[in-house]
């Protein structure tokens, strides 16, 4: 590991990567991947957590190639594969969070700040933008044949992707807080909703910490390829010392993966997304589900339904199930 902060000539990592840590993390991610795959099969939760085993695979590839890079740190293809996978996985992990939150909203639709299906389409579209910027940015910054001007563009793309990630996380947390406050106000906040929601809060915080770390890293160095005229000792410690990567990225991501193994959403939420918790906080009802007759592109740009053609006097399905809400029942008693 780059413990002394010294550059290694010819290394695309700038230092000689540790030879033991990538093996450990590759094994841990592979084990979590296998566990998630098993859980998806046994609990039939592919629609909720199907992305998690895929994310585990990406992280496993990232650390396997990083281990190869520890011995061949001058191999550009190995470096690119490891780095692209490392940047690709966190946004997809965020997308998995949107899936889980969407299922929480399906279960308590009267608390949802948005059509549950829109959590995937809207946030998923934003994640796609992040992935595209990440892929181009990483590939260009590592390509020594690219001119200095294009390298600066690549750095700007990486910086933009990280800023977008942070902004999307802020928006996502706002949605969760709105849901949380509505649940408290309605007096309906059962344990099987609390656990997934609190887990989402914590895992989203870990992703945010990782994004802040990466953002500070890129902004503090102004592009790895444009520092040739500055003494390496003056570069940011975030680049010169490898332990920052393992503390603020690798360890956080593996924590998230195993948290979802231990607190799997299907242990708390029904398989059928048409099943929702009635407003009395006790009865589970099979409802008709959410309907939105607008086109995909309209819902993509108007996820909150501001321009919906639905009649204003039409009651949502959870108000027509004949079950009195909990707060009203308290008033009667």
Give me the secondary-structure topology.
Elements: H1 21-42, H2 46-49, H3 51-71, H4 76-107, H5 116-142, H6 148-186, H7 191-221, H8 237-240, H9 243-262, E1 275-277, E2 284-286, H10 296-301, H11 326-332
Please tell me about this protein's structure:
This protein is an all-alpha fold and 333 residues long. The chain has one domain (21-332): Rhopdopsin 7-helix transmembrane proteins (Up-down Bundle), CATH 1.20.1070. Helix content is 64%, strand content 2%. The protein is built from eleven helices and two strands. It has a two-stranded antiparallel sheet. Helix 4 (76-107) packs antiparallel against helix 7 (191-221). The chain is elongated. The chain crosses the membrane at residues 20-38, 50-73, 79-101, 122-142, 162-183, 195-216, 243-263. It holds the Pfam family RTA1. It comes from Myriangium duriaei CBS 260.36. It is found in: Membrane. This is RTA1 domain protein.
- Strands of the biggest beta sheet: in what spatial order? 1-2
CATH topology: Rhopdopsin 7-helix transmembrane proteins
Terminus-to-terminus distance: 66 Å
How much β-strand is present in the residues? under 5%
Number of helices, counting only DSSP H or I runs of 4 residues or more: 11
- Count the strands? 2
Under the CATH scheme, which class? Answer: Mainly Alpha
> What ranges have pLDDT less than 50 throughout 5 or more consecutive residues?
none
Short description, anyone?
The protein has 333 residues and is mainly alpha-helical. The protein has one domain (21-332): Rhopdopsin 7-helix transmembrane proteins, CATH 1.20.1070.
